Each structure stands twice: as structure tokens, then as C-alpha cells.
Amino acid sequence: MRHFILILLSIVVSAGSYAQRQNVEEYKMQQEQIRKTELLRQLDSGVYYLDIGEYATADSKFRLVLEIIISVPSDLTFHFGKNSYHLEKYKQSIDWLTKYIQLKGTDGQFSEEAASLLKLGEAAYLKEKSNEI
Fold first, then answer.
1. What is the pLDDT of residues 100-127, one digit of tens each?
2. pLDDT confidence of 23, banded at 50, 70, 90?
3. Which residues have CB under 8 Å from 94's CB, separation 6+?
4. CA-to-CA separations, 32 to 27, 62, 63, in angstroms, rounded
């Protein structure tokens, strides 16, 4: 009987430990989902400010996302590149728009606009550099 009680007790403890691990995993997943939701909210906010012409505010939103995010989504490369162009940060714009085109090719949602902005950015950057000389 004593042996049976010990076995039963160990089963109960194991089940409790398993349930606790499950709760911890569920909590971690919920926290990750909250983090992703916040990042997407910041990205959307940056796009909003870009669209209304508040480029400095958009830049701060995009930079916040870039500081936190692990894997940069292609849409962010486009929006950050476009915003950088409007801030006259042409080299930065060229880098990000080039990255978008590398990721999406000619089939991306913003591919045509990215290619157009890339040409404008390259021309402005060359003009900027020639003026420095």
C-alpha cells in the first residue's frame, strides 16, 4: 500500500510539473504575440506618418521597429527606404530600397514605386556627392 501511495504521489507531482511547464510555455507564446502586435502597430503608425508627410515622426517609428525586430519584413525595407528618400538621406534610401527589390524582385507590392524612388535617390545622391567635390 505504501508503495502504491508513493507511485500515486509521484504521478500527481509529475502531472503538476507538466501543467506548470505548459502554463509557462503558453505565457511565453502570449508575450511573443503581444510583442509582435506592438511591432506591427508601430510599423503601421510609421506608414501612416509617412503617408501624411510627417517624415521625422515616421523615421522614429521605423527605427523603433528596427531596434526590436529580429527579422526585418520586406515591407519595412520599402517604407523605411521611401521615408529616407523624403528625409533626403539618399544613401540610406538607396540601401533600403535596393534591399526591398532584392527581396521582392519585380513582383512585390511596392516594386514599381521602389524602382522609381531608387532611381530618384541615386540621382540625388550623385548630385549631392558632386556638389561636395
1. 999 999 899 999 999 999 999 999 999 9
2. confident
3. 81, 118, 121, 122, 125
4. 9, 19, 20
pLDDT (tens digit per residue) in 43-77: 999 999 999 999 999 999 999 999 988 888 999 99
Q: Are 82 and 73 in contact (CB under 8 A)?
A: no
What does pLDDT average to over the chain?
89
Which amino acid is it at 27? Y
DSSP notation for the chain? -HHHHHHHHHHHHHHHHHHHHHHHHHHHHHHHHHHHHHHHHHHHHHHHHHHTT-HHHHHHHHHHHHHH-SS--HHHHHHHHHHHHHTT-HHHHHHHHHHHHHHHTTSSTTHHHHHHHHHHHHHHHHHHHHHH-
Residue 65: closest CA among 94, 99, 35, 95: 35
What's the CA gap between 94 and 47, in Å, rounded?
18
